[in-house]
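name: query_chain
kind: protein
chains: 1
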Amino acid sequence: MSPLPSPSTLDELNNFLISVERRAFKRTAFAVRDEDSALDIVQDAMIRLTQSYADRPSNEWPMLFARILSNATLDWFRRQKVRNAVFQNLGDFESSSDDGDGDFNLLDSLRIDDPGTEGAEDTASRGETLKIIEEEVGNLPARQREAFLLRYWEELDVAETAAAMGCSEGSVKTHCSRAVQALSKAMHARGISL
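structure:
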């Protein structure tokens, strides 16, 4: 058993977990489509990081946590498959030679976390648009959704996303490109231009 980290390290780890909690929950809720399960998965991932990697340098925590969260989500799907004999929405893990990077950041275009001094009508409109985007992100195939959320929600680069997903950088680019194209098409079909 490894020695307990120092109180300052524990404080730093606690601050890190607080900073990623909301995004991790949202990402997981998109994947599993059940808020209670998403909360359990995120909490499990946080516990695993704390138990196994608290002594690692803090700059390694984001990648470690992303990988742990991805693995915990996959474990949840595996358990669901065994329980229900149905493998829900995990997609077909297809790969492609498409090299599009998909650098368009759909979430940034809405300035989600910074409403500033906009009026009530703008706030309501932005809120409705965000709900539509969340719905459409939830409709993406699982691997596209995971790549999109890691790249644009978690702001990982292509290499970090590939490591977190356990796939090649080319697959990440393909999944992101397809996700952005699908989201753009869905938004256009709903009369929303970004």
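note: The helical segments are 7-32, 35-53, 61-84, 120-139, 142-153, 158-165, 169-189.
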